[in-house]
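Morning F.,

Quick status update on the modeling queue. The single chain you submitted on Monday has been processed. Sequence for confirmation:
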Amino acid sequence: MTMDATAADLPARSDDVVFDIDHVTLRFGGITSLNDVSLQMFRGEILAVIGPNGAGKTSLFNSLTGLYHPQQGSITLAARPGDRPVSVLGKKTHVINRMGVARTFQNIRLFPALTALENVQVGIETRQRSGPLSAMFKTPWQQREQRESLASAIEQLADVKLGHRANELAGSLPYGEQRRLEIARALGTNPGVLLLDEPAAGTNPAEKREIAQLIQRINAERRITVLLIEHDMKLVMSTAHRIIVLNFGEKIAEGSPQAIQQDPVVIAAYLGTSAEDAAAQVENQPKVQLIDTGEPSANSGPEDGDGPV
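Structure tokens below.
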């Protein structure tokens, strides 16, 4: 495993740990999906997890959110400022959500027969206290929460630039707008940490730019810590403060976007060559072209073209 980035390469960050993943191993029968993975996620950063297909990225996400249960290791969470670190192992997904973790999925999971506004309200109402009886009898408490839910949903849609789509069915929206709607629904749960699983998958360049801008705004304006899985290296290099690379379920590198682009071990993992052959290509490898989001990126530099990472 390489650790090429120095402290000077990395952005200023809080030492407040959000997720602390310590020697986690996840197996399915004879298949090891995560092998002794350790990493920390710090409050306020955008952390990207990258790697070839089958590297264990989604298995890591699912372990953090309670869908998978690792056989070894520990995972603790302090999602919001001031929270005490608590283990997430063995906890249900909805419990982890209430602890301050929201996520999107690689395959969009909206309610297509509901409007965009209603989809966001579903996320908001997960943290409300009104139950079926109060809704049936329209108690003052329930009516107040309904008004609050509506106002918050309208605000969330406006933040992702979908206010004009509020009353349209989610299933009828263009693909890129469905991606942003899913993020808005996740934000409706009021998370301290947002996990994005390939948010730019299937989008065109204009939609990718909008998603990159949205991720940066969520992080900067809402102070939400973001964990990102993404195959699109332009998006990763344009938004991430720090990158962790997985391959065959193991962490092989960690560092700044600039350091990861020049890491022979990472290049070898993507190209399927030896580290020695990859090292010979580093000097001539062009930098990944960045997305122009209008904000300074963690990997500033000339837009020379596309390399393997």
